[in-house]
Amino acid sequence: MTLDATAANKVLGGLRPFPVAVTTIxxxxxxxxxxxxxxxxxxxxxxxxxxxxxxxxNKTHEMLLNxxxxxxxxxxxxxxxxxxxxxxxxxxGGSSGRDGDKLSKLRTKTGVTGAPILLDxxxxxxxxxxxxxxxxENTIFVGDVVAxxxxxEGERLRIGEAWGKLPADWIEQYETNxxxxxxxxxxxxxxxxx
Length: 194
Known about the structure:
By secondary structure, the chain is α+β, with helices and mostly antiparallel strands. It has helices at about 5-15, 60-65, 80-95, 160-165, 170-190; strands at about 20-25, 30-35, 40, 50-55, 70-75, 110, 115-120, 125-135, 140-150. It contains five helices and nine strands; from the N terminus they run αββββαβαββββαα. The two termini are about 30 Å apart.
């Protein structure tokens, strides 16, 4: 039996409904990105853990490896907040931190770890990394949650809803910018270091 990649991606894609903004800080420089690979990592309610998976291509990946701290934010779907959510998504998902300071365009406060918290997000958990798992093209980070807050009530933004509201020219630019990241991931999977 051969792999039906279309079916596999449909099944696996359904497991990642919420885009998350991940921020970190290293050496005084704050950065962030958007991810669809994040979640809870503990069943003990009084000792929560969070997990994020970041591709090695991203500057935030390197910074998170070095700093050991991150904030995972969910975005708001509330009508009065959705424009701010899309601004976060386009700012963090539309360019690389290698090209300049992305976070200065967004409203933030400093978290207990020193990492930036996005004030226009729906909610967040802030974490200190306790373990990592290298899985070729990306790293899975697991962190003990040290702070959390619901910033705005209402529903959380789902990726399908967000994608349907993004400008076509931004989506086109995102897809162009995504090509080198995808090529990097493929080279790691082929056993080549990039």
